[in-house]
Amino acid sequence: MPNSQDFAVIIGIKDYVALQPLTAPGTDALLFADWLKSTSGGDLPPDNCKLILSSTDPLLPLQDQVDQAFQDIFDAISASDIKPRRLYFYFNGHGLGINTNETALVLPKWTYDFRDYALSSSRYKQHLVDKGLFAEIFIFLDCCRNRIAGVEGAKPYFSNARPATASATTSTFVFSATEFESSAFEVTNNLQPGSPQANGLFTTSLLSGLKGGACDTSKGNRITAEGLRDFISSDLPALAAKKNLVQVPRYDAQNTTGDVTICESRVAQLVSVTITFKNPNQQVKLEDPNLGELHQGDSSTPFTILLQPGRYYISLSDDSGIQKIIVPSDQTQFTYEY
User: Fold this and answer.
1) Where is each Peptidase C14 caspase domain found (predicted)?
2) Does pTM top 0.85 for this prediction?
3) Is residue 1 part of a domain?
4) pLDDT tens for each residue of 93-110
């Protein structure tokens, strides 16, 4: 049965008036929405997911559109007999660091004159907690946290006269792509020759973890908040280092009691994977999620290997050519071309 008691607001903003346009937010927001709606992922009903993507004509979204998406969820809950469990809030776009615990989530109309035309991450979190509707609130922020003086970010238009009684037991989990006063990066992944695609490093790591990389086999193949934290903390810096970049994620959990299960992993503990190569007579290597070498051999012969859930890297042994990322799940056959 779908998780009809779970809801989500997903925002991807690539278009800006005064800041450099981005490439990845729209694609990444759609990928995260796909995971949320997948039966092997969040398993949310599509109507429970509010997706907001930016546009240039007209220039959207405005804050009103974001707040209306949340209000639509509140109204749907009020009109039903569903007891809500969890809210996911995902943002991908430009961000500005306010302090170590707060980020301004920049909207398209932001300029140096309208420097507060951004959403305050901490104010939105607190207002969502004050509603008292959700037992758990997961917030994922794929954005920079560099600082510009005077930026505070706006609070939401929705609010309660006073915090709901149930808000005292709401648990919050905030996954930030990077540390305060640091950048988050989007990179081009040449996963298919001639068809480059830009993705945020944080979202790439996040989805890899949610799709099995963060699976804790000692806990019945569960993916938990702490397991996801540990996976991203290891995987994301390694992804960045592959691109000669530095990116260290941040995690903050409040009012929690024990480790919370995000989803049950549908990935088997070990998956038999076969990798074939289009070009023979080359030395090729397979690396594990921590960039340790698992196997090296001649590309004239396919690799067949048992792999645990996670992200793996295929490349020429001398690191030339295209690096391909594979994530074993339902797909177990991969082809590498360089």
Assistant:
1) 7-217
2) no
3) no
4) 999 999 999 999 999 999
